[in-house]
Every structure is written in C-alpha cells, then in structure tokens.
Specification:
The protein is α/β, with parallel strands linked by helices. The protein is built from 14 helices and ten strands. It has a ten-stranded parallel beta sheet, with no helix packed on it. Strand 6, helix 10 and strand 7 form a beta-alpha-beta unit. Helix 5 packs parallel to helix 6, helix 6 runs parallel beside helix 7 and helix 12 runs parallel beside helix 13. This is F-box domain-containing protein. It comes from Acacia crassicarpa. Pfam families: DUF7885 (PF25372), F-box-like (PF12937).
Length: 365
C-alpha cells in the first residue's frame, strides 16, 4: 500500500503506456511504438527513457513503479536522485526505513511533516545509506533527538542545504558537531531551534562552514552578539540572515555583519529592540567601504541590501533609516514592493525610498 490508493500492475501498464507516448511526442512527435500491447515491452524500457517518464509523475507513483519488476527496481534505485515524502501523512518513518536502503543515490530528500512522524531510526538509516545526499528537509520533526544530527554528521558530509526548522529537541552540542563534519553547508534553516541555536553553535558554524550563504535563526532567543560576530567573521559569503526574534543581539552584531559580509542581501531584525541608529549607519556606510576595499567587484544599484526587516525596532530614528535607504536603492517603501519593512515603527513613516524622490510611480506586480 503506497499513498492513498494501491496501484495495480494493470494500472501501471495503462499509465506508463500513455506517459511513454507523451515522452516520445516531446522529442519527435511520434511517441513510443508499443507493438503487441502494453505488456510486451514496457518492462524493457531503456533506463534513460524510464527516468524521463518517472519525471512526469508524482513520487507515490515512482515508489509503486520501483516494485514492478527487478529491472525497473534497479533502474529507479540507481537513477533516482530526488524524492519527497511530504505527502505521507501516516507511517512516514516506516516508509523511510523501507526506501532509504533502496534509493541510495538520492541527492535531495524532502521529509517535511505537518504532524511529527520521523524518529531517529529513520534518519540513521538515511545517513547509513544515502551518502550522496546534498539537500535534506526535516522540518517539524519534533521527535528527533541529537542522535539524528550525529548520524547525519558521520554519514552525509556533503550536505549543502539542511532544514531542521522546528526541531526543538536538538542541542547546540550536536549542532556544533554537525557543523564540524558538514563543512559544505550553504543553506541552513534553524528557525525555532531554541536549544540548538546558541552562541556556541554559531561559533562552530563560523569556524567550519565558511561557504554558508543563508541562515535562518528566527526566534532563537539564545543567540547573542558573540555568536553572530563569529558567524560574520567566519562566513564572508553570507547573503541572507534572519535574526527575527533574536532579542539578545545588539548593534555589535549588525556592525560585524556590515563590516565582514559584503554580499549580504537580506537581513531580518524583527523585534530586535536593542538595535539602534548605530546599526543603521554601519549598514549605510558598508557599501562605500566594501567598494573601496575591493570586497565587491563591479557594482550597480542592486549591490548590497535588497530586503531589510526592522519591524518593532522602536529605537530607530527616521534619519538613520533614511541613510540606509539612500545607500541601497533596491530597498523600497513604495506600494507593491516593500522590501524595507518597518511595521510597528510609527516614527519611521517619513522614510521613503528612491522612487518617491524620483517621482516614479509605485511598482506593480
């Protein structure tokens, strides 16, 4: 039983016969000749065509197809690189335990859940079998413990993108251990990982994950200046950083980011109420400094910040925020764009982007 309905061999015969016609029609318009009816040749489909066909159907059908015959099973097991099981509302853990040893060439695995199902046994199996894994989504896996992170660290060192948002049971010790092995990480989502995201963990990430480009630390209240400063110094290629709800950080964090991360494009500071004008002036001056130091090659108006969320940062004054707007034309306050977000800051209503001064109409779409 896979998914909501059981797929019979007869159903697959009919389904794949139609899909083969579609696949062939895309290339030559003639489809695939199937003499002798659907049962005579579909088991002998070339691997390349089979994978093309499977690219047209959902993951439930791919799993069902892997049980059709030995040839298909081997082709799919060795050819399948991406799989999502987010549709599985029950028994996801058992399904992973069954599939991971078969689909060993997976590079992308999405296990996002609405209700927590995954347990450490499933993640350990993934780590033991899928050593090519580069992208893994385990968001909302509330049942997972540090054992999962230790397993991933040892078994999946090539991870580039990891989403463990909402995994509230992980500790900072386990996250630091993961960072020491998974040094190729570029995208890391820790939103809501209240225990794992600490200064200790961020120091480890800054030391080991120097290719990091995107980090979400939303509502991680244990994050402070020590961690963010270490991150800024160790990850100069950082493009996107969400610090929304990190109530302990101060201007020191933003100054470090402005100084050490010349490619920063998006910064979230929602509810960081210790942020003052010093942060804004540091950001405003960073573009000129980075150009002078040769940190950013070339240069156009899209360089630097494109999104800045300073909602509920009530200590900021209009002049300081206007200075940031003036330095980064890609920041907009006009209708339809709003990449400079100032909700809850009534004192900043007088701040306007370049469009207002140039008399340009608001952007639509």
């Amino acid at each position: 039983m896979v998914g909501r309905e059981k797929l019979r061999t007869e159903d697959l015969n009919s389904c794949f016969e139609k899909l083969m016609m579609v696949a062939g029609g895309e290339k030559g318009g003639k489809g695939v000749k199937m003499e002798g009816g659907p049962n005579s040749e579909w088991k002998d489909i070339p691997v390349e065509l089979l994978m093309q066909i499977l690219g047209l159907v959902d993951d439930q059908t791919v799993i069902a197809a892997s049980g059709v015959c030995r040839g298909w099973r081997e082709a799919i097991c060795f050819g399948l690189t991406r799989l999502s099981l987010s549709w599985c509302s029950k028994n996801m853990n058992n399904l992973v335990l069954f599939l991971a040893p078969k689909f060993t060439k997976l590079q992308t695995l999405v296990l996002r859940q609405e209700k927590p199902q995954l347990e450490d046994t499933a993640v350990e199996t993934i780590a033991n079998c899928c050593h090519d894994l580069q992208i893994l989504d385990l968001s909302k896996s509330f049942k997972l413990t540090d054992h999962s992170l230790y397993s991933l660290a040892r078994g999946c060192p090539d991870l580039i993108k990891l989403n463990i948002s909402g995994c509230s049971a992980f500790s900072d010790t386990a996250l630091a251990y993961l960072a020491s092995f998974c040094r190729k990480l570029r995208v890391l989502n820790l939103c809501g990982c209240v225990k794992a995201a600490s200064d200790t963990a961020l120091q480890a990430i800054g030391r080991c994950c120097n290719e990091l480009q995107s980090l979400n630390l939303g509502w991680c209240e244990n994050v402070g200046d020590v961690g963010v400063v270490s991150l800024a110094h160790g990850c100069p290629d950082l493009r996107t950083l969400d610090l929304c709800g990190c109530i302990c950080i101060t201007d020191d964090s933003v100054v470090a980011l402005a100084t050490s991360c010349p490619y920063l494009r998006s910064l979230g500071l929602y509810y960081c109420q210790n942020i003052t004008d010093r942060s804004m002036h540091s950001l405003a001056e960073s573009k000129v400094k980075h150009r002078a130091w040769g940190s950013v090659k070339g240069g156009n108006e899209e360089d630097g910040l494109r999104t800045l969320n300073i909602s509920q940062c009530t200590a900021l004054t209009p002049s300081a925020v206007q200075a940031v707007c003036n330095s980064f034309p890609a920041l907009h306050t006009c209708s339809g764009r709003h990449s400079l977000i100032t909700s809850g800051c009534l004192s900043l209503t007088s701040v306007h982007c370049a469009c207002a001064f140039a008399g340009h109409p608001p952007h639509k779409g």
